[in-house]
Amino acid sequence: MSYKILFKQKDFLNLYSKIILKIELQLDNYIGKKNLDYDNNYDTFSIFIENKKIIVLNKRENLKQIWMATTKTGYHFSFIKGIWICIRNKVEFWYILNKELRIALKGDIDI
Known about the structure:
Blueprint: H1 9-28, E1 36-41, E2 44-49, E3 52-60, E4 65-70, E5 74-80, E6 83-86, H2 93-105
Antiparallel strand pairs: 1-2, 2-3, 3-4, 4-5, 5-6
């Protein structure tokens, strides 16, 4: 299924920046037993647990998509009707991110 991109490049960059900022704020407030850290380097946002990279987010400007790579799989998200949705399984971005973090942390974290 093809998704029509209905917003401008600057709108995409603004949406991506808001997502990254929200994640950074939540990770900064994480209180738990594991060492949780992140690195925001240009187009790549990486999340580390115990110094091991577990999640990588990339913006794909030409496609206006966000790509997420985990230690086991990858996801591509498009902005559909105001929500970032995985184009393969139709699951929402925040649900997948939270699920992957809970698995890696062996506990609760909500972003």
